[in-house]
Write a structure and sequence with these properties.
heterodimer; A: 106 residues; mainly beta; three-stranded antiparallel sheet; 25% strand; flat; B: 416 residues; alpha+beta; eight-stranded mixed sheet; four-stranded antiparallel sheet; 11 helices; 19 strands; 25% helix; globular
């Protein structure tokens, strides 16, 4: 596991280091854009950029035709992805902890 | 959370944008039928473009861009004639197909008019509404969803809301909001203002689920005290892609319509058909339409009824909510599913395919799944729905209550 200079609980996947959360930005929220500008910046930095299935670019900003919606689940960040090139759809988790056994469902 | 680019794409309804092109593959209500009976032409805005919608003397409906192809005067002030609409400025006449039929000031031998055509859409009447399609030909068929064509007593409430339609549609795949916005908050407002809040909306959600299906997304819930065998889970009710939600219960059948008038204005319509068993429905020569309140006199939102609470939540998110700073949780998976669906259907349109919910097969009625025993509340839900939701503002609210009570009496059903 590699911890980047600005990240906490980061995980290395192949050659790519992805961060779970950066420390809160110093100072007050950027009121010109609304609340939580650090989370927005984290999203731009960490959202998957390529389709795991066909490797086409996902974000519009990279010329892609997909969509990446981020939601949070406990300490995980989850990126719900859809690739407009091949139609692949799935969730990519950024986890700082991996459990060997999951609790039984009810 | 989305990037700014994705949020722009998701919310832009303009022609030539991916979302705008997707939305131009569907039919939308643009007038009440009675409006064109009272006056045969109306100015309307749809997807950020202005149109004149009209009913000819022969009874055919048409829709053309508002600006006359001649000198851009408004055809919404046109003279409606037997076979079309005539510009009030110089008398150019257009048929319902957009063909220029007459140019009175030009030489009668001129072929100029053959080179002119208004970019006409298609318009039809169904269920007391005039529907329009303004996308590329060939136009699909107008889908005859059950609520619009079934027997019953009809009622249409509406309001124009200052926000983008997507944040309203995201509410349609957000079951958890019901127990708080229409439960806890309703009870809070009831205590503050001195009225009774309905108990049926406040039940805790134990489980929610979503299934993509041929018309959109079916939303399911299990509320406390109920099980997966109950209608709320077994049947559920659907978001009807891309701009409707089918709701109801206790034989109150409703389509909530969210029409993208422009990027930051949505016409919200509550089209309801009351269809209880065991009663003969009275004739309705004209279907009542009525505006529902959005704001109080002091400019605050009116939140003492169900849809007023929804409207408050939708509008206070902003004209176009900033999804770059939202924080979705696991309970918002319906929202993520809808965004992916929008994107997938944009891709279909870009590839030249029909998107979800476009129908080209002739049909009589499209039945949509919708629970009957809503929130496990039994027939009582009908009275809650009429009394505590937007139907309380209907000019026929009392008659609707009596309709359901008479039906229960005829069927020997207890109210609770």
């Amino acid at each position: 596991m590699t911890v980047g200079a600005e990240t906490v609980g980061a995980v290395t996947v192949g050659a790519v280091t992805v961060g779970a959360r950066r420390p809160a930005a110093p100072g007050l929220p950027d009121v010109s854009r609304g609340w939580f500008p650090q989370d927005a910046a984290d999203h731009v930095r960490d959202a998957p950029r390529f389709c795991p299935s066909c490797s086409a670019a996902l974000p519009l900003g990279d010329g892609g035709h997909g969509i990446v919606v981020e939601f949070w689940q406990g300490s995980d960040r989850v990126f719900a992805c859809y690739c407009g090139e091949c139609g692949w759809s799935g969730d990519i988790y950024l986890s700082s902890r991996v459990l060997g056994h999951e609790p039984d469902e009810e | 959370m989305l990037t700014a680019e994705q949020n722009d794409e998701l919310t832009d309804v303009a022609a030539g944008t991916p979302m705008g092109e997707l939305l131009r593959r569907y039919w939308y209500p643009v007038a009440f039928t009675r409006e064109l009976e009272e006056f045969p032409v109306k100015r309307t805005e749809l997807l950020g473009e202005h149109y004149a919608v009209f009913k000819t003397g022969r009874g055919n409906y048409g829709i053309v861009p508002e600006a006359c192809p001649h000198r851009r005067a408004s055809l919404a002030y046109g003279v409606v004639e037997a076979d079309g609409i005539r510009c009030p400025y110089h008398g150019w006449m257009f048929g319902t197909d957009g063909a220029c039929i007459e140019q009175p000031a030009e030489n009668s031998e001129s072929t100029f008019r053959d080179r002119i055509r208004a970019k006409a859409g298609h318009a039809e009447d169904m269920g007391g509404l005039v529907w329009a399609y303004v996308g590329p030909d060939p136009a699909p068929l107008l889908p005859r969803f059950d609520v619009f064509v079934m027997d019953g007593v009809r009622d249409i409430g509406w309001a124009d809301l200052p926000c983008n339609f997507v944040q309203i549609m995201e509410n349609a795949v957000d079951p958890h909001h019901v127990e708080f916005l229409h439960g806890r908050y309703f009870q809070f407002m009831a205590r503050q203002m001195g009225f009774d809040a309905p108990a049926s909306f406040a039940k805790k959600h134990v489980k929610v689920g979503f299934d993509a299906f041929e018309w959109g997304i079916i939303k399911r819930r299990v509320v406390e005290g109920a099980s997966e065998e109950d209608d709320d889970w077994k049947v559920g009710h659907p978001l009807v892609f891309p701009y409707n939600m089918r709701v109801g219960g206790a034989y109150v059948e409703q389509m909530q319509i969210r029409i993208p008038v422009n990027r930051t204005t949505t016409r919200f319509m509550l089209y309801t058909t009351h269809a209880p068993k065991g009663i003969e429905f009275p004739d309705q020569p004209v279907i009542p339409d009525y505006q529902i309140p959005v704001f109080n006199a002091d400019g605050t939102h009116r939140t003492d009824y169900v849809e007023g609470q929804d409207i408050m939540a939708w509008v206070t998110q902003g004209p176009i909510t900033d999804r770059t700073v939202e924080h979705l949780g696991r309970s918002d998976i319906g929202v993520t599913m809808l965004r992916r669906m929008f994107k997938a259907e944009m891709a279909k349109v870009a590839a030249g395919q029909d998107p979800l919910g476009v129908i080209r097969t002739p049909h009589e009625q499209i039945d949509l799944p919708c629970e009957k025993n809503k929130f496990d509340a039994g027939p009582r839900f009908a009275l809650d729905f009429i009394g505590k939701a937007s139907m309380q503002f209907s000019p026929q609210a009392d008659a609707l209550r009596k309709l359901h009570i008479s039906a229960w009496e005829n069927m020997g059903v207890a109210a609770s």
